[in-house]
Amino acid sequence: ACTNCEAGRKITGQVAAVNEDASCAKCETGKFSGDTPPTEYSCNDCADFSTTLQVKSTSESDCLCNAGYYYSLLSGNPNLCHVCEAGEFKETISNTDSCNDCAVGTYSYEAATQCTSCVPGTYSITNKAQSVEFCTACVGGKYSLQVAANSAATCLPCVAGKFSFSASSQCTDCVAGKYSTSIEGDSDLVCIACDAGKFNEDAGSSTAEACLNCEAGKFYALSGANSALWCEFCTAGYWSSLGSVLCTPCANGMTSLSPFDSIGTCVCDIGYYMLDGNCEQCPTASSTSDVDKQS
Prior knowledge:
Layout: E1 9-12, E2 23-26, E3 31-32, E4 44-45, E5 50-51, E6 64-65, E7 69-71, E8 81-83, E9 88-89, E10 100-101, E11 106-107, E12 116-117, E13 122-123, E14 136-137, E15 142-143, E16 156-157, E17 162-163, E18 172-173, E19 178-179, E20 192-193, E21 198-199, E22 212-213, E23 218-219, E24 232-233, E25 238-239, E26 248-249, E27 254-256, E28 266-268, E29 272-275, E30 278-281
Antiparallel strand pairs: 1-2, 3-4, 5-6, 7-8, 9-10, 11-12, 13-14, 15-16, 17-18, 19-20, 21-22, 23-24, 25-26, 27-28, 29-30
């Protein structure tokens, strides 16, 4: 015998004269089938911008407005579900909930199911903001870690030794080899290279004192050294004091024991001897066999 499909179902399968191969399937989400047994192979679609909460819906009243849409009997409008405007949101599938305003620090576009927060490094002072353009960037030299920040006061200043560009969520250290004494530095241009003859191995330095001198007996001719390894030994015959840019040649008749003598003291060379503080050449018939260790 033939059996009618119950409400909320549709006819499916191959229908023969005696309906032997026919069966009933549940209406999918967003569709319904009324109390009258269906005579076609499809369920009825819910109206635009609406859906059902479950399968096997039996009435058009089961169709509820989508999230991002609200229910209203507006005259002259064939649709009962209307879009939430930009700056509003609606999270639920329902005909009873209305659209809510986005809070300060957030925004939304049309048909939003939730508001989007302004990202760290930005803030908004506008209620019911309608786009990301309402999120204002923290200026260079400041930063903000806060999500959905709602005040310019959430943008904090970078300390000395650091800097930031616009819309930053953190400050960036001046690299090793440089330092900065500036507060609210707005670019890496505030970072000053250590002078030639000095080095700094620490990032984020805030004073010139962070730049240390190359040892005596060494030198470095360029600025911005980020390691003591950049300080080079003076060659034999030259000497240097702390923080030297270049090595100084020993006086005539003198040499140095560099690179093994970091003090860089010049002594009399072979063939010279010390006399009254100066190195004098040995007479032709005599010579010294080693450098004179006297200064």
